[in-house]
Structure formats: C-alpha cells, structure tokens
Amino acid sequence: MRQIITHFTDDDLYKFTMCCAVIDNFPRAQVKYSFTDRDDTVYPDGFARELAAQIKALDSVTITDDEIDFMRRRCTYIPGWFYNYLKGYRFNHRWVDVRQDSEGHLEIDIEGSWAETILLEVKILAIVSELYYIMTGQCGAFDYGRYYHKSYRKAERLLEAGCVYSDFGTRRRASFEAEDTVVRAMKDCEASHKWPGRFVGTSNVYLAMKHDVLPVGTMAHEFICAIGGMYGPQMANNIAMNLWRNTFRGALGTFLYDSFGWKIFSLNFSEDFANLFKGLRVDSGDNYEQLMRIVDKYRSLGIDPKTKQVIFSNALDVDSAIEIQKYAVEYCQPSFGIGTHFTNDFDGVKPMNIVIKLIAAKITESWDFYNDTCKLSEDTGKHTGRPEVVRRFMDALDFKK
Predict the structure, then answer these.
(1) How confident is the model over 225-240, as a mean pLDDT?
(2) Residue 297 half-sphere exposure toward CB, CA atoms < 13 A
(3) Over the stretch 315-338, which tens digit does the pLDDT of each residue have?
(4) Distance between CA 3 and CA 57 in Å, rounded?
(5) DSSP string, 61-78
(6) Adjacent-strand bridge partners of 337
(7) Ramachandran region of residue 381, left (φ > 0), alpha (ψ -120 to 50) or beta?
C-alpha cells in the first residue's frame, strides 16, 4: 500500500496555529481524543491493520525547509520560535491506538502531550477517508479530469455570485489528488476573469504552497473544549480569547464561538473582544438564525456588523453558499469555508461522516486524572462526547438544545 500522507504540511493551518498557542500557554498539558463515525460504517477486513501501518509511516514525515520558508512568508503572525519546534517535531505512532471490532467498526484513540498529538487529527481523518475508498475499490471510478471541470464550474458560480470563499476540505477528502484538483481548478477559474467574488485560498498548508495561494484558518473547537475541560465551560471562551490575543498579538482572525453554544459565548463576548477579532465563524445551527444573533450582538456593543467578517462553514454546498451570500451581504462581510462538497463530490460516492474530537484534558502530566470535556453543537443531536459528560455540561450552562 502506498503511503497516503507524505508531506508534513498536508494539514489544516489551524492545527499549526493552535499548536503554537498550546505550546505558548499549556506546554505540559495532556489530552485524549476519540474517533467517531456518525454513519456507523462497517470497514473492510484488515482496515485497522492498514490504517495502523499508515499512521506508523507518519513517523518518517518531517517538515522541509521549503515548507518553513513558505509559512514564514505567508503566515507572518506565527512567531519565529515555532518553526524551530516544527524542525524538531517527530510523529510517534505509539500515541495512537487503532482497533476494529468483530462487526468491522473502527475505533481510534489518541493520548499524549497536547502540543504533540494536536497535529494528528486531520492527517488521520484524511488517511481514513482515502484508505476506505482504496480498500473498497471505489477510487477506481475517480475521474480527475471530469472532477477538475466540475470544480471549475462550482468556482464560476461562487465567483459570479460575489462569494468570498476557501477550501476547507482536507479531513474528509476522497483523496489527496481530489483536493489538489479542486485547488487548481479554483485558482485557474479566478485567474480567468475579473469576478465579483474571490477565491481566498485553502486551509491545507501544503496545497497552498504548491499552488501559491493563501493558507487560511484560525482555530477549531478543540482549543476551547480543552480549556472548558480544564477550567469549566462557563469561562472557556473568555480564557481562549485572552490566550489567543496574548499569543498572536493582534492577528487574531475569526473566533469559532459555538463550542458550548451561543448563550454562554455571548455572555463572554465583551466589547474589547468584539473589536479585537476580525469576526466570527458559524459552524453549526441555522445559518440565518446564527447570523442575526451575531448582528444583534455587535449592534448591542455599538459596533456596525458590516465592518465584521462572518465565515459560514456549516456543511455548505455551492447552492447554500450563494443563498446565504444574497442574504448576509446586507448585514456583514460574509465569507465561506466549504469542505466535503469540494473535495468529496464524485458521482455515486458517499462522503464519510467521521470526526476525531478531544474528550479529556489535564493541565500537567503530573496529575493522575483527566478532566472530561465535550462539544455542545447548535445542531440538535450533534453534541460530541460521552453522554454523561454532555449532560453535565448542558446542566452547568442551562443549555436548552
């Protein structure tokens, strides 16, 4: 079996920015992650063995000087010391436990230093997805020539509609070649004409380097959820925003607010934070309802929401992005992060519905216990974490969904 991940920066940018913030603020923290397949997929015989071999192969993947030079040029907000850390970083397959039960369901657990294990999630998900299509034989039907033209047409429609958008599709892509094809098509399309919209770039740092586009991304729920486990969910957003401010000194980007629901975030989102962050990212719930909550919050703080960016990234496709654009442009500066619809949209192929979520954290390795954590989604029924932990956090926050 060929090695699926061969480039260190074949990963989402926010894993690197979060890794930097973790080292800066929680250098001794330990964490646990767990894999969930929301479709309860039955994987082929021997899948766990092949996956374990792919994860072990990551031990030999190191960052190159070219990758560091690119990140220094395009990610100027990342402090220089972080690249010395990346030069010495090595994956270790022993951080990961992969199993397959008697019915073929896949189980993955990750445990170790937060600063080290944080760079595994996206890579493992991308491997699981691509490996599944290889071992089931579905990859044989992938026509990348047709996929280029399909992606080009998606770009035309988004750009014509005035959408500002990026590729967010690494974790559940059909293959590396699929995402590579998408980024190439999107860049070619934008360069072909003067459009009302704009293709900003991709969350995938390696593909951003390969195609000379902007690597994009700020943070994931993981950062806030870990803090919620260590300190409690009531102040997790406040602590996370403060730490992010201290690490990145003004280049704060957009804040992902829905780790523990809108209500508690809104109580923590004071005027100083609202002015500091460029905007907010909508990743769950009804897009229109969430937008109006954001607009009302900014207005209550005396801030014109049209000066703020709202990034929509909740299971979008081209049609839904265009409809949101038409509505949201009257209220804010809308932009879009589109994932699986870009990188796993082959005819007759069902995209995987897989996630790896942080489920426990402790601030130092000297503690003999972990603090459980979870994520409370604005989408009813999509909370992640052990049921008893989810219920405890919901009770603590008077969470209604």
Answers:
(1) 97
(2) 25
(3) 899 999 999 999 999 999 999 999
(4) 7
(5) ----HHHHHHHHHH-TTS
(6) 166
(7) left
Whether pTM exceeds 0.90: yes
93, 60 Cβ separation under 8 angstroms: no
Q: SS3 sequence, 213-277?
A: CEECCCCCHHHHHHHHHHHCHHHHHHHHHHHHHHHHCCCCCEEECCCCCHHHHHHHCCHHHHHHC
Are 58 and 123 a contacting pair, CB within 8 Å?
yes
Asked if 338 and 316 touch (Cβ cutoff 8 Å), the reply is yes
Q: Supply 115's token pair.
A: 């600063």
8 Å CB contact between 178 and 338? no
pLDDT of residue 400 exceeding 80: no
Q: Which of 164, 14, 139, 134 shows the shortest CA–CA distance to 77?
A: 14
Mean pLDDT of the region 109-127: 98
What is the bridge-based pairing of β-strands 106-113 and 96-100? Answer: antiparallel
Of 173, 314, 204, which Cα lies nearest the Cα of 257? 314
- Span 138-145, average pLDDT: 97
Contact between 335 and 329 under an 8 Å Cβ cutoff? The reply is: no
Q: Shortest CA distance to 131 belongs to which of 54, 33, 207?
A: 54
- Interstrand relation of 333-338 and 164-167 (parallel, antiparallel or unpaired): parallel
